[in-house]
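Lab notebook page, bench 4
Experiment: in silico fold of construct C2
Operator: M.H.
Input chain length: 287 residues
Purpose: comparison with the prior construct
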Amino acid sequence: MRITNAMLSSRAVTDLQGNYAAMARAQEQVSSAKRLNRPSDNPADVQAAIKLNETIAALGQNLRNIDAADRQTATAETALAGGGDAIQRLKELALAAANGTLSAADRTTMLAEVQQLSGELVSLANSKVGDDYVFSGHKTGTTPYASAAAAYAGDHGAINARISPGVSLAVNVTADNAFGPALAATNQLAADLAAGTAPSAATLGALDAGLDALLNARSQIGAVSNRLSATRDFLTASQDAAAAMLSKLVDADMASVITEAATRQATYQAAISVNAKILQKSLINEL
């Protein structure tokens, strides 16, 4: 078979195109700092990278859900702690008012502080995060208590946060369970004092029940907060591990790709020079 100048030219162009493409890929990796820039670079690794990106995105959403739930539980915990302090003071006032040496006028004087504490309990029960009431169940746009004497206006819906794949956690308590007994006891104490009588044993018992309800709700929210914290730590570690795996798949080894790019460029330049000489001599021979 006779090797013609046209055949040499065609082969030279094909080889140069291959060398140029390899050089261009190496230079692209240097400029992008990425080993994978398009699906054709390595289809299997690109598919794995897509799945890792999806995993990282899902974990990120779970972490955002936890952050939102954490804001709610932090607000709830603060409100419940404040409610506990208020009911403790109400118990002190009730015990003082039960002293047989106090007059009806003395007890009427105490009533002003009881009413102030009653208003504080209502305000705490109506705590909000942004525009949403924390203790209204699903009725987050509804004020739980219009006043200490009013009925609870929310519902008993659980606010569930999706904190990890396939796992949801109820992150709320409702005001009627947490604050309702304390408000009822406060109303009862206010009625006793307004009448100028010593608080009854039933009133003192109701105040104890109100404190227990607040403590139980606070304990429940504390357990939720601990679960959120532990889950956040686990998800953050998982996200970091997935990001490290993704980086290993996608990111270029800069020292390696810089060396390869320089080598490819040198090879391409040498191929141009050698092919130019060969083709020139072949053309002379043809002539």
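Observations: The chain has seven helices and four strands. Residues 5-50+251-286 form one domain.
Next step: discuss at group meeting.
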